[in-house]
From TrEMBL:
GO terms for molecular function: DNA binding. This is Helix-turn-helix domain-containing protein. InterPro entries: HTH_17, SinI_DNA-bd. It comes from Lacisediminihabitans profunda. It comes from the Bacteria. Residues 17-68 form the Helix-turn-helix domain.
Length: 104
């Protein structure tokens, strides 16, 4: 990972922004998967420089990870609930009972 001291001189700290490669390494995914997360908007990022290199703010990545944990927790609770096996009802007009039609 390319962690460098930020230019503000606080020394010993981690960089505020991460490259796609850094992000991929942290998440243990490929760089193309990290790029797909950014391109889809699921992982907010900014383009920096003339060549438009993507950068992800470390705090944003941490928030993304926390949101994924919360999503997994809620999904797990949903699957454990009594409503997980409830049938879904359709309110689609095409699903109406057409056995009673008026004849004119």
């Amino acid at each position: 990972m390319n962690s460098v001291d930020p230019p503000n001189g606080n020394g010993g700290g981690l960089a505020r922004f991460l490259t796609l490669a850094d992000t991929a390494e942290i998440l243990h995914i490929s760089a193309s998967q990290a790029y797909a997360l950014v391109r889809s908007g699921e992982l907010p990022a900014i383009k920096i420089g003339g060549h438009g290199h993507w950068r992800i703010e470390r705090a944003i990545l941490e928030a993304f990870i926390e949101a994924k944990y919360e999503e997994a927790r809620r999904l797990s609770l949903w699957h454990q609930s009594e409503w997980a096996s409830a049938p879904e009802y359709s309110f689609d007009s095409g699903a109406r009972d057409h056995s009673r039609t008026s004849s004119t």
